[in-house]
Amino acid sequence: MRTSLDFPDALFKHLKTRAAQEGRTLRDLVIELVERGLTAREVVDPQKRFDARPVFGSTDPAARPVHFMSNAALYEIMNEDDDERAIQFMARR
């Protein structure tokens, strides 16, 4: 079935870049990612994820030592948009 979706510019750029890097079409990549999201086993309430986070002096999750981070904090960092991580990294330099 055909449909039309409006993606934020940064997300669309990320998707196109990833598809090109993997030698795939944008359509195939989006279908795979949607299917993966629909079949994910664990559905986490975002509020509970934030409540489980330990408190540290820095508000920047990337500045915290990994061995002191909760699973929720690690999961959040792993799932940040690549463009956002690049912006944060460059700002620290």
Q: Strands, helices and their partners?
A:
Blueprint: H1 9-21, H2 26-38, H3 46-51, H4 71-78, H5 82-92
Helix pairs in contact: 1-2
Description:
This protein is mostly helical. It folds into two domains: 7-41, no CATH class; 44-93, no CATH class. The protein contains five helices and no strands. It has helices at 9-21, 26-38, 46-51, 71-78, 82-92. The chain is globular, with a radius of gyration of 16 Å. The model has no long low-confidence stretch (mean pLDDT 75).
Number of domains: 2
CA-based gyration radius: 16 Å
What proportion of the residues form beta strands (DSSP E)? under 5%
Number of strands: 0
Broad structural category: mainly alpha
Largest sheet: none
Give helix % range. 40-55%
What sort of overall outline do the alpha carbons produce when their principal axes are compared? globular
**Separate helix tally:** 5
- Any low-confidence stretches, pLDDT <50, length ≥5? none
Mean pLDDT: 75
Q: Say what oligomer this is.
A: single chain
Pattern of helices and strands = HHHHH
Distance between the termini: 46 Å
Concise synopsis of the structure shown:
The chain has 93 residues and is mainly alpha-helical.
Question: Keywords for this structure?
Answer:
globular, mainly alpha, 93 residues, 5 helices, 55% helix, 2 domains
